[in-house]
Each structure stands twice: as C-alpha cells, then as structure tokens.
Amino acid sequence: MNAIHRLLSLCTPWVVGGSLALGAGAIPAIALTEAEVAQKLDSVPAFVLLDPQGSLIVANLVAEAEQGQRIELPVLYVFLDGQDAETFLQDARQDNPEQFGSGAQVSWVELGALYQEAQVEREQPLELAYMVQDDDLAAAQTLNSDYPGGVPVYTAVDTDGSYLLVPENEELVLPVFFSRSDLEALLAEIGEVNPETVADLQVDVLPLESLLAQMENNDTEEFSKIRLVPDSEAIEYIRSRTGQQPTSEQPPTN
Length: 254
Known about the structure:
Oligomer: single chain
Distance between the termini: 33 Å
Pfam family, one: Tic22
CATH class: Alpha Beta
Strand content: 25-35%
Mean pLDDT: 84
Number of strands: 11
InterPro entries: Tic22-like
Radius of gyration: 19 Å
Structural class: alpha+beta
Number of domains: 1
Low-confidence stretches: 1-14, 23-30, 248-254
Helix content: 25-40%
CATH architecture: 3-Layer(aba) Sandwich
C-alpha cells in the first residue's frame, strides 16, 4: 500500500492543529538529524540518470571562485517525475551524445539516499539539482504569487495557520504532499465524512528546499510530525515498469 493510500485508509478522525512556520524565513538552530531527515525522504522516489555501467551521471558545471579561479562543481540532476527524466534524457542524447549515449537510462532511488550522498564530505560537495517543469512552477505561483521556485510541496492549512494532522500508527502526522491533486483527494475523502473539518482548509504550497532547510535547522519538535507523501503518479510510473511497489534502493556510485 503506497503512502497516499495509507493516509486515506487512516484518516479518521482528523485534527487541525499545529502552527509550524513552514515558509521561508529566519531559521533558528538545531533540529532533525541528517539521518532523521533522510528517513523522512526515504518515502519519496527520485529519478536519476545512469550510464551504461549503472553509475550516476553527474554533470560538472564550471563556476568562478575567489580571485577569478574557475572550479568544477559536481551536479546530479534529480527528477521527481519519471516521465520528466525520460524526456530530459531524450533531449540530452541529442545535445550531448558523449555523456548521454544510447546506454544511458532512467532509474529511481529513494530521495533520502540521494540526500545522504550529498552530505558526504568531499573537496567539491555533490549538489542536487531538482528539475522542475515550468508548468509545475506556474501552478505553484497560482497559489502563492510570491512562490520563489524550487520543488513545490503542498499542505492543508486552516485560516488561523494551523495544519491538517492525520492519525498514523497511533500518532498524529502532518502530511506534506508532492502532488496537489493527491492532497485534494485526501481532503475530498475527509469532507465526505466530516465536511466541517475541511470547511476552512485551503491548499498551501512551499518549496521542498525551504522545508528541508527548516527541518535541518529548526528546533521545533513539531517538525518530527512531518510525513512526506510521494506523488501517486511517480509510484504508478515505477509500478508500471517493475510490476511492484517501490522498495529500498541505494544510489549507485561512481
């Protein structure tokens, strides 16, 4: 059973509570550990490009450092949609056949594994470049005209700033969705049984990158309640190609 279906099956009763400051802004110090953040990200499949040997394809982008020096920064393209990754690979094969030749392929890993890979100390740390479609950014900006960009994730928030909490395994969690339509499906499900609960709720959007920064640096205990819910279309993409639900995978390394 995937994340969205688990939430739908467990969403009775519901609670609107908690006032986490999920938007961008000043961030205090110390919160979830690297391992705890990675564990939350493990529920989210991420799509990457592999070379014929099965290693991650990492781009080296040239940037200027101090005193005019030029350095190469290793950048990993990360997709939250498998079809987007396939489209990118098709275009890249034409533009850069040497790196993205016929043997390159799309694969998936847990986002938490990529997050941890990016935390490894190196002379030049690995940067994760989240690839977001213009349509997704435009949709986020319809909800929030000040949306700064990045991977949009969605929550349900009350008029007083409280977030929707749902029960899971005898505790309350705060679901954060990678798909607006999946969140709206949950709200519709709740509304059929208890319309008063969702009457004052509205969909809010924030960048995944800002959420991660706050999880890493904010000492608010409530951040431990966050439950990341992957896009159901990403789950279906994997199922359609493997015939099974996503299971744990580690990122192949160079």
